[in-house]
Amino acid sequence: MITTISFINYRKNKFWAFKQMAESHRHFIKNSNINFYKLLGTGAGEGFSLVPDFSTYAVLAVWNDYENAKKFIERSDYSKLISEKAYSRNDFFLKTIQSQGLWNNKNPFNKNTVNLDKNKKIGIITRGKIRLIKQLDFWLNVPKASNAIKNAKGVEFYKGIGELPLIEQATFSVWKNFDAVKKFAYNSKAHSEIIKKTRKRNWYSEDLFARFMLEENNYKLLN
Predict the structure, then answer these.
(1) According to a count of CB atoms within 10 Å of the terminal CB, is the N or C end of the chain lower?
(2) How confident is the model over 64-84, as pLDDT tens digits?
(3) Residue 186 burial (CB < 10 Å; 0-12/13-18/19+)?
(4) Other C-beta atoms lying within 10 Å of the C-beta of residue 179
């Protein structure tokens, strides 16, 4: 099993890109090689954001194997369309180290986990479904957490992603190695505070945390 997350950036064709959030399901929903997928918007800036980024979209998928993931990303009809319309794409290939919690009542990443190689880059997905009555409290506190990660040593990529504006939010980040993740987790006061508040104030009706080893990262300029 392998997980991919692709960030697709547009300088033109932005309305077409927005429509793909609804129209592109046909390329994924009947694909027998995909166990789980999400078509995601992104937030302006690096982390959680109230403001959408209409120039960048993400596709998250969990595949039966690496070969089928690679084939789809490089040669499928969907990818050919993306190549014609988008400015660039950035594809991350990930193997699960650990995953806990739920995404739509299941954990899509917790099968076939691998042992940690401390020298490899680490990918992290955090996801939460925010309770309606907790919206204001959540959005008043989130900027501190986003700034803490943005300024952390060892973080190489960080972007907010989501299914529904305001309600279903997630982040994906890439770190230089496991030590960088560990130092941030233990040494960042802002991060520690937001974790405590998350538990104490019960912001999420459903949440998930997954840690991966980065097996491959391909960035391509398309147009």
Answers:
(1) C
(2) 999 999 999 999 999 999 999
(3) exposed
(4) 13
pLDDT tens per residue, range 11-58 = 999 999 999 999 999 999 989 999 999 999 998 765 566 678 999 999
SS (H, E, C) the chain: CEEEEEEEECCCCHHHHHHHHHHHHHHCCCCCCEEEEEEEEEECCCCCCCCEEEEEEEEEEEECCHHHHHHHHHHCHHHHHHHHHCCEEEEEEEEEEEEEECECCECCCCCCCCCCCCCCCEEEEEEEEECHHHHHHHHHHHHHHHHHHHCCCCEEEEEEEEEECCCEEEEEEEECCHHHHHHHHHHCHHHHHHHHHHHHHCCEEEEEEEEEEEEEEEEEECC
pTM exceeding 0.70: yes
d(C-alpha 97, C-alpha 31), whole Å: 25
Q: Name which residue leads in pLDDT, 135 or 67.
A: 67
Q: What gap in Å lies between CA 57 and CA 86, rounded to an integer? A: 10
CA 9/CA 88 separation, integer angstroms: 5
**Longest Cα separation, the chain:** 47
* pLDDT at res. 27: 94
* Total count of residues recorded for the chain: 223
End-to-end CA distance of the chain: 31
Q: pLDDT tens for residues 84-111? A: 999 999 999 999 999 999 999 999 998 8
